[in-house]
Structure prediction request, 428 residues.
Amino acid sequence: MSLTLYSQWRATAPYRVRIGLALKGLDYAYEPVDLVAGAQHKPAYRAVNIQRLVPTLDLGDGTDVLTQSLAILEYLDEIHPEPALMPKDPMDRARVRAMAGIIACDIHPLNNMRVQRALEAMDVAAPRRAKWTERWIVDGFNTLEPMIAKYGQGFCFGDTPTIADCCLIPQIYSAARYKVELDAWPAIQAVGQRSKEHPAFIAALPENQPDAVS
Amino acid sequence: MSLTLYSQWRATAPYRVRIGLALKGLDYAYEPVDLVAGAQHKPAYRAVNIQRLVPTLDLGDGTDVLTQSLAILEYLDEIHPEPALMPKDPMDRARVRAMAGIIACDIHPLNNMRVQRALEAMDVAAPRRAKWTERWIVDGFNTLEPMIAKYGQGFCFGDTPTIADCCLIPQIYSAARYKVELDAWPAIQAVGQRSKEHPAFIAALPENQPDAVS
Prediction:
């Protein structure tokens, strides 16, 4: 398979998939979508993904592209089982998926660019938007912290990266962008530190992408 | 296992799990959480689920409760494989999970009660909130429609219910609450019609729950 990932350097959903691809050691072509300039709304990208969101993963084999970061990560883990991004036990898998869901359903969708712009269009001023963004991060991280403290041993669940880490590390990056300090969440902070030494997480960093703007 | 589901009759995330439990033929105790009265913020429920959201599934075996509707549905499908709520092929599974993600990540989190209240607290007036709510439903349904038209044969994917249907039917219910007509989405509408004849979907209906308010 010749993979192509449609991505934007600091959008957190494609960042999750970059981590997953790097953990699996899979090569892929990087196709930047300039979300700030509105490239996602142009016909060229709409023809790829009518939802006009990133990521999109083209498998290069003529099948329909894959969308939705969690669906893509689970697919990659099923097709390329090693190294595993999910534990084997159903209950453990439910814990990992719950952590991923807290981020992918309850934090990120409320804070991404299309939502920030929608709030702006409803005349919600910048200070209130900042409070809004912080609120969902704080709520989500307050929920994640005891789970990671209980189930994590270096990473969110156990001592190897899972889909939960693929979600958490981009969300930590987003928290820093919005100036939310991690002091209240030592377990989350520790996973963030750990990821800094891991080559797959380093390869996936926003600043290491071809479309990064310094 | 003696299952207990913490639910609220018309919240769409526990509605998804009710459908899954009914499709699997699993009995459970129903524990209502009065979200309108703020019961989710009281110590009794915080002790169950610190995220203060529904659903929570207590397996009754002393293990930590399960949270996050998609994680719970995948768990139920792994523990009770028949009838299957997921196809077997990894690519097919990715399609089902993408459909579920479009609803559970890109529509519902933007429209649920805590978000409606947060918008209200930022002085976003009712007509704008209605437009906001409609926008995410329209965006999501526009994305889902061609997928269901292509992959569905009565249900979202194929001719038996999957996790995608567990998400879609509650989202159709929510669309009706917000007066979003389904005329533009015949494939979605057809799945909604089909579910009306299915006993598991009927059992899970909001109006058939013990805490329903007429």
